[in-house]
Structures are given as structure tokens and as C-alpha cells.
Amino acid sequence: MRRRVVWLWVQRIARWGLGGFFVFAGAAKLVGLKFSWGAVWLLLTQGSWSGIRFLGVIGFRDEIRNYRLGAFWPVVHPAAILMPWIEIVTGLALLCGIWVVESAVMIMAMLVFFNILVGSAMYRGLDINCGCAGTDMKVGWWKITENLGLFALGVLALIGRRRVGQMDRTAGKAALTETADRQVG
After folding, report:
1. Contact criterion met (CB below 8 Å) for 95 and 16
2. How many domains does the chain have?
3. What is the pLDDT of residues 124-152, one digit of tens each?
4. Reported pTM
């Protein structure tokens, strides 16, 4: 019983962390939030909004354009419109616990795609912002590591869900067997 509770909480915390991050990232892209952590510090300590900007979807579109995707340029604007909504919906699904497997797999697929884009930009020597969650983080190994950490949260959410389900089925079979033994005996 204790293992079930532990796995239940591992799954919940992974789900909530990943879902919350993607809701924030999608909302930040939707309004075009652009900030640095230094600007957040100024806002919290001095009340100054000087380093925080709201650029709208156009700001996120420009971040995608910076990747210089060549032949894929016609999908840049639709991606800038759809991607924030996909991130918000899948993140909310994880937070609420509905369609957990589907939303976790979709988020993990997006993370793989994002790592491919970041790796491509690094390989081509582009010194650009990643366009993620409104921060001014540059493409690089830190971004790939962050995405791998988020991917690990998705794996934990899926494994935890499966473990809890297996323990429930095992407990259910044991209860049925015990009930049947009492009826026969």
C-alpha cells in the first residue's frame, strides 16, 4: 500500500510540474511575454517593469523565424498561432488529470522536436534565443538539458500512472481471490 501511495505522488508531482510548465510556456508565447530573470528581480524588489515586455504572437513568430528553417518558412506563422494553444491545452489536461497518457506523449514529442531544433541551431552556429517560456535563454546545452529534464518528468508521469494501475489490478485480484476463498471455505 505504501508503494502505491509513493508512486501516486510521484506521478502527480511529475504531472503537475510538467503541466504547469507548459501552461506557463504557452501563455507566455500567446501574449509574447519577454523577460530576463534580472528583470523579474527588479520587479519583485523595486516594482520596476522595465525589463518585461509583451510582444503578442508576433514576438513568438519572430523567435521561430530566427531558427532560419529554410523551406519550412510557410508554417512559421501558423505554428506561432497554434503552438501556444497546444501547449496550454496539453498542460491543462495534465494538471487536471484527464487524457494523461495522450497529453504526456504529445508534450514529450514536442520536447523531442524542440531539442532537434535547438541542436540544429547549435550545429549551424546560430546565437539566438530559444523562444521558450518568455525567457531570454539562448539555444545551447542548458536548453537541451532543461528539455531532457522535462522529458524525464513526462516519463515519470507515465511510469507512475502505470505502476499505480498495476498495483490496483493486483490488489483487486487479491481481494477477489480472498472473497472466493471465503465463499468456498
Report:
1. yes
2. 1
3. 998 888 777 767 778 889 999 999 999 99
4. 0.74
